[in-house]
């Protein structure tokens, strides 16, 4: 099951554009960083950031529908997903816990994302918005470590691609005019 999850992450992420990099790997973890410029103002980008159901890829959700994902933007708030009952019982998953928030400028979450959730791992996802030209730059850093059954050097590029894909989704939706 674990290999299928890893391959699913890798295969679905191949379409993610570059602008992300694995900064560091070690025996105990890794650091990735992605950055994207978005032609929209800080308030609009931040509001969109808090509604992952609009920009997160359905393929990287537990329910198969990112519309089930929410972020409660206050310290202790949850980046959570409801899993509706289909062929069994309904459920939910916590992707991360909000640990720092400055509206319009920064959102930081603590949580082991995706396949890291089944390991004794911890991760910190930091999203920083800064003015750039006629829009915003969003820099995403993810630091993960702990006991990882898959070597960090092996899994870090897959996590980098998947998170980079989500950041590109944020950009795409933020720059798409409402009709």
UniProtKB/TrEMBL annotation:
Keyword line: Signal
Cited Pfam families: Polyketide_cyc2 (PF10604)
Coiled-coil spans in chain: none
Annotated signal peptide: 1-15
Gene3D superfamilies per record: 3.30.530.20
Superkingdom of the organism of origin: Bacteria
Key word Calcium present: no
InterPro entries for the chain: Polyketide_cyclase/dehydratase (IPR019587), START-like_dom_sf (IPR023393)
Protein name in the entry: Polyketide cyclase
Organism listed in the record: Sphingobium cupriresistens LL01
